[in-house]
Amino acid sequence: MVGDILFINLADGSSWVENRRELVEKYIGGSGLAINLLNELCPEKVDPFAPENPIILAPGPFIGLYPVCSKTIAMFKSPLTGNLGESHAGGRLGVAIRLAGYDAIVIIETSSKLAWLDIKSDGEVKVNGASSLQKMDSLHTIMALNASSQYGVQSVAAIGPAGEKFVFYANVSVDGYNFFGRTGLGAVMGAKNLKAIRVVGSGEISVKDLDGYKRTFERIYEEVVKSGKMRKYHDLGTPQNVLTLNKIKALPTMNFKRGYFEYAENISGEYFADNLLVRKNTCPLCPIGCKHVAILRGFFADEHEVESIEVGYDYEPIYALGSNLGIGDPLDVLKLRAACDRYGLDAMMTGTMLAWATEAYEKGLISLNETIVEPRWGIADNYIEMIRQIVAMPNEFYVSMAQGRAYKNLGEEFLIAIGGNGLAGYHTGLAFIIGTAIGARHSHLSNAGYSLDQKLLSSMIDPIKAVETLIEEEAWRCVLESCGVCLFAREVYDKRIVLEALNTLGFNYDEEELMKIGRLIYGLKYKFKFREGFDFQNLKIPSRILETPTANGKISMEEVQKGLKTAEAKIKEIVEEINNHYEE
Q1: Is residue 33's pLDDT more than 90?
Q2: Which of 62, 142, 358, 428 would bridge with 453, disulfide CB 3.0–4.6 Å?
Q3: For 377-390, how does the pLDDT look when each residue is reduced to its tens digit (9 = 90+)?
Q4: Domains of the chain with CATH codes
């Protein structure tokens, strides 16, 4: 039934369904449904690792019905940012949840022992012991729980050792090639003693207007495969960005010391595609195949004992573990990505912390007593050992690394994070920094400030106009996230198409109502952030960002502050509108 939400209590194994049709009708699903539930269910100022911190998984209504719609939204309180935890993952999970009959799954409390969840369409929910999976990496956990005898669409989401050890940026792997990354969902699952979730969906997804649905599907499919709007993602994938950004001196290199990497060609999308690509992976109902996969061979004993590991690669890990660490060997980049996957770590935040540690070591702020192994630009094996130590946490230094913090607050000016989240690989200019700062989850995908910089290359950017543009764009992205649209397809899913697709499913909105919904969702995210202590006045911008020239020249703190002050006023106005709305 529309609006059915499955609740699972890990402490006693109980489960029940509550119907919240009114929330789905008002906020569509996905991001809109999840943020409403988070505001309702998460106690104010709760410790992110407390049993009361809920995990909410919400796919949107387009998932399982329309092309390039696969993103399940996860919301929780983040240990990394201290406020909104939000992450999006593709794969089969969203389809499985919908075919199981639910618009969302809410997981509460903590299991007394390591456990995994088994959720099926017939309402059966089991909390199973997972002692045999302890310390297992997420990929092998997924393989162990994939049951060939199950009928229907099956998906497994699992954490690795980093999640079990509560590393603040531990991720969750979905079906092996997709991830809930960035804000620490893996650590929250680990705190709940939840190793994995398996969902098997064997039901149906209905539409209100079948003929209209068919017409709309065909129109969207044609646009996806023939318009050229998504060719980049199919051909080279996001690694196409490497040479594009390097050309305009916007590829962050060695902890944002500069925007140009002399070995960029070696780690470019073109090089990977010509020399290392073995296949492409895709999500259900997506013809693009944006997941580019390489094979990494490794010898582990004499007599040519070899293992072959499939490693997915895309732009952000290539930047974070490549140019940002001075790594110019593509195989070394894959080795570092494989290490992150093995332990279940967000690759971007891992790269941020390793780059900070390398510069702190160079400057004599830390020594081998703390790092155990010498962090050196371009030396992958040393970084791989440091990744292992981040998870092991043998001393206070690595505890700090695992928490995404500068050790003893040393060198904070070159820890390249905003709002607690490591920056993406776009040293493009002012709009990217403001966009990251005002993005509800401090992610480059919250809005596209980097894209605005590139469109206005070598032009003066008005921070006030940039804020207005970025807030409007993020509000629209909130609509797409609520529908379940992959943001790679944002040029395809314009307002006309979204309204038409929603209408076939029984949602009756006009364009004004749709934008109001997006604005409300954005405001509700900030309502949660403010409630949990987020304050623009305390938001730090690393001074390194201001020192290194971007593609648009140097950024001035005055311009950043002007933008943030404008954003704060506009966002608080939106939140006040929401508060008045609820009081009425």
Answers
A1: yes
A2: 428
A3: 999 999 999 999 99
A4: 4-201 (3.60.9.10), 237-398 (1.10.569.10), 421-583 (1.10.599.10)
